[in-house]
From TrEMBL:
One of its GO terms (molecular function) is acyltransferase activity, transferring groups other than amino-acyl groups. Pfam families: Acetyltransf_3. InterPro entries: Acyl_CoA_acyltransferase (IPR016181), GNAT_dom (IPR000182), N-acetyltransferase (IPR051531). It comes from Candidatus Chlorohelix allophototropha. Residues 27-168 form the N-acetyltransferase domain. It comes from the Bacteria. This is GNAT family N-acetyltransferase. SUPFAM superfamilies: Acyl-CoA N-acyltransferases (Nat).
Length: 168
């Protein structure tokens, strides 16, 4: 699986072994990603998602690149968050992007850097026609990231702003 590289980050695709380690043996995770794992990772939302992700990778290993990626800080060799898509492109060529940065690494441009890398990779593939996202309407940091990444607001549903980047 392809590790995406940016100036400051390595975006490492999540494997079945990585999920297994995060769920049951955290000490086995660090060698798999060649980075330290902060005590506060994963976030409660990601921790809740891990069993589903484990099943998804087991059922469709070829789609792992479209899932969660760990954000490894290249100089500090530490996991600072995650980013990725919520699955492979659907029948219309749509993928949904998401991301999360540990609090101590926020407001330093890491989310935007990761999102731009994922968008560049995904939109170069012929099967991706659009990328969508959503964030809470009071999440100013995410609003800024999505705007700077080139996504456009398409509406608000239940306090969630919907975003879209049309590719083709």
């Amino acid at each position: 699986m392809l590790v995406l590289e940016t100036l400051r980050l390595s975006l490492i695709p999540c494997s079945a072994g990585m999920v297994q380690a995060l769920l049951y043996k955290r000490e086995e995770f660090e060698p798999l990603v060649m980075a330290r794992l902060p005590l506060e990772y994963p976030s409660p939302e990601v921790a809740e998602f891990l069993p589903f992700l484990q099943q998804q990778i087991a059922n469709h290993p070829e789609q792992a690149e479209w899932g969660l990626r760990f954000l490894r800080h290249r100089t500090e060799s530490i996991i600072i968050g995650d980013a990725g898509f919520k699955g492979a492109p659907d029948f219309s060529g749509t993928v949904e992007i998401g991301y999360s940065i540990l609090p101590q690494y926020r407001r330093q441009g890491y989310a935007l850097e990761a999102v731009k890398a994922l968008l560049e990779w995904a939109t170069a593939l012929p099967k991706v026609r659009q990328v969508v996202a959503e964030c809470e309407n009071d999440n100013l940091a995410s609003i800024g990231v999505l705007e700077k990444a080139g996504l456009v607001r398409t509406g608000i549903i239940d306090n969630l702003i919907k975003w879209r980047l049309k590719v083709k």
